[in-house]
Design brief:
EmrE-like; transmembrane helix; 3 domains; NIPA like domain containing 2; magnesium ion transmembrane transporter activity; mainly alpha; 66% helix; globular; Mg_trans_NIPA; 0% strand
């Protein structure tokens, strides 16, 4: 069959399909495919660069969170604490977080979503190590086991994630944006989102699964738009300018709006539930939604073998299990003690333990010298 002439209606669609065919390149099946061999490295250099950026970015984010927490603790110990935004240490944490998020942003532009999204486990497991250095927390046996499982899962993810190399141009994003797969996916996602939002707002249901499912549905849109924006910027730098297309700014608006609402819902979850519960559930839900988005919108598992998909999913499972072990019961270690131990304070009456005042508004009160602990005989005389 002859190709359509440039003026015919099918010419534009044919050009887009030709561009997509050039953008997708899979490693040939054979020796080295699915193993960390020299041929695998040569085929996946750009992916490994994205993996390195994502891992470093997540580790920097974990350091920044602990630095900010450490700055809050230091300010709380001061007699006249300053606002946290005047602390140089706090701003250092903010700058590190911005650098880490920038690394993740660039990584999405050069590597598949299904490869980058699960690497968020590095932020959680890395936080367990940095909290030992900055916050003097204990490194538990479950932390070591969780880190080992997360590293094993990361190895499998990097090795068996789809080795598809795709140049994200504006025409590519437009083609996917109007594809029937994405249309059906978005209709179902909007329907589920509206149903959950109705139960959350109208019925007052604030279960953690409902809140974090809403966050995950927004996150799937976020990762699609982030990869589109980052990919078009990368394509503009390496090949041809893409920032003049309207789809670039549409994706920017979608990215910002979905991030804002995602953070708002996540803050509601952290107010209602402790961090040790929110972090692993949110990581699992976010990763699953991001993988589904990458498969449907960018077709990242197109042509992948069944064994490759199975080992990839097993790597995801190991990383999920590692995150759960690292965060398990961590919040209970920071619960307040049922008394205040003052020890021996020079010039003051020695009070070993002061129980909370259940009838007052304060946690506990110090009795003065005249109202010290009475003996049983004195209590009888008072009666």
């Amino acid at each position: 069959m002859a190709a359509p002439a440039p003026g015919e209606p099918g010419a534009a669609a044919s050009a887009v399909l030709d561009e997509l065919a050039r953008n997708f390149t899979y490693g040939a099946q054979g020796a080295g495919n699915g193993s960390l061999s020299g041929a695998w490295y040569r085929r996946n250099q750009i992916h490994l660069f994205g993996v390195l950026l994502a891992i470093l970015g997540n580790l920097v984010i974990s350091i920044s969170l602990n630095i900010q927490k450490y700055s809050h603790l230091r300010l709380a110990q001061q007699e006249h604490p300053r606002p946290y935004f005047r602390s140089v240490l706090w701003w250092g944490g903010v700058i590190l977080m911005a650098l880490g998020e920038m690394g993740n942003f660039v990584a999405y532009g050069v590597a598949p979503i299904t490869l980058i999204a699960p690497l968020g486990c590095m932020s959680v497991t890395g936080s367990a190590i940095t909290s030992v250095m900055f916050l003097r927390e204990n490194l538990r046996a479950s932390d070591l086991i969780g880190m080992t499982l997360a590293l094993a899962g990361t190895y499998l993810l990097v090795n068996f994630a789809p080795n598809i190399t795709q140049a994200i141009s504006a025409r590519t994003v437009q083609y996917y944006f109007v594809g029937w797969q994405f249309m059906i996916y978005m209709i179902l996602e909007i329907l589920v989102f509206c149903i959950l939002l109705y139960f959350h707002k109208r019925k007052g249901m604030k279960h953690i699964v409902i809140l974090l499912t809403l966050v995950a549905l927004l996150a799937s849109v976020t990762v699609i738009s982030v990869k589109a924006v980052s990919g078009m910027i990368t394509f503009s730098v390496t090949d041809k300018m893409q920032l003049t297309y309207p789809i670039f700014y549409i994706m920017c608006i979608i990215m910002i709006a979905s991030c804002v609402f995602q953070v708002k819902l996540l803050n509601q979850a952290t107010k209602l539930y402790n961090t040790a519960t929110v972090v692993p559930v949110n990581h699992i839900f976010f990763t699953i939604s991001a993988i589904i988005a990458g498969i449907i919108f960018y077709q990242e598992f197109l042509g992948a073998a069944f064994l490759t998909i199975f080992i990839y999913l097993f790597g995801c499972f190991l990383s999920f299990l590692g995150v759960v072990l690292v965060t398990r019961n961590r919040e209970k270690e920071h619960l307040p003690q049922p008394y205040i131990d003052f020890g021996n304070v020079p010039g003051k009456q020695i009070l070993d333990k002061i129980q909370p005042d259940s009838s007052g508004l304060s946690y506990g009160t110090l009795p003065d010298g005249s109202d010290s602990i009475k003996s049983p005989n004195e209590e009888k005389k008072g009666v």
